[in-house]
Amino acid sequence: MKLIREIIGYLLGGVVFVVGMPALMWLLSGTPALWPVGAARLYAACLLAAAGLALSVWAIVYMRRKGDGNPMDAFGHEVAPRTKHLMTDGPYRLSRNPMLTGIFAYLAGCGLWLWTWQAAAFFVAFAAIMLLQVRSEEKRLRRDFGDEYTAYCRCTGRFFPKRK
Mapping DSSP to helix (H, G, I), strand (E, B) and coil, where does residue 151 land? Predict the structure, then answer.
């Protein structure tokens, strides 16, 4: 039963973030034609979206295998089993939030494809809400992992690698 719930959770997350969010961007943009798109914009949008999805999937798979859980809680409410230890390697050596960084890149690619101010506004609003969510998660991670998390924050950027 636990495995079925996890599979449903991952599928639901995929539908919401990979299908639902871009569809909402498109609807809010007034349902513009998706084709034709200039070649440069098409390649850039596809590259950004594909790289974002790849990073997110890598982070999800890595966390599932190595972390035996998920750190996410929705503004203080646990939505998945929490990891047993702090993830600091794999994609988590590049960013403290590689799943979300990947989603940001994916949605930026979708917005680039649509090329509307509404898609850009949606992206900015989504990013602002997710920043609040990340800050909530960070408080819990500090409680759960203490000095280990504080040290990790010093050497790893919230969304992008830190320069050393």
Answer: helix
